[in-house]
Specification:
With 107 residues, this protein is an alpha+beta fold. It has a single domain, classed as Arc Repressor Mutant, subunit A. It is 57% helix and 14% strand. The protein has 5 helices and 2 strands; from the N terminus they run H-H-H-E-E-H-H. It has a two-stranded antiparallel sheet. Strand 1 and strand 2 form a beta hairpin. Helix 1 crosses helix 4 and helix 2 crosses helix 3. The protein is globular.
Length: 107
């Protein structure tokens, strides 16, 4: 699922903008738009006005999006790949949280 990283960040209640997602995932903004359009078309995320900047939109998960993410996350956690396989579930969770904080701050 190419859109898993986008859905994961949105479901983490970070309320990222499309630009923040593009920067964090190191993707061209047009690629992010296509992924978000797909997720929105499937009813998994919604674009809402950013309360900090009315010119931009933040992404929020729908209830269905949270369910899909929970199932995908469980599958990913059960089969860690590559060098992450050597980490415990707690260590992977800690690493994920630290990377989110580096990317989006402590908010």
């Amino acid at each position: 699922m190419r859109s898993y990283p986008v859905l994961a960040l949105v479901c983490d209640d970070l309320r990222p903008t499309q630009r923040e997602l593009a920067d964090f995932l190191r993707l061209d903004p047009s690629q992010i738009v296509a992924l978000i359009d797909d997720l929105e078309g499937r009813g998994l995320v919604e674009r809402q006005q950013d309360p900090r900047d009315r010119r931009s939109k933040v992404l929020v998960p729908t209830p269905e999006g949270r369910l899909v993410y929970a199932a995908a996350h469980a599958a990913v956690q059960s089969e860690p790949a590559g060098s992450f396989a050597e980490l415990s579930a707690h260590e992977r969770d800690t690493l994920t949280e630290l990377l989110r904080r580096l990317a989006f701050g402590d908010d």
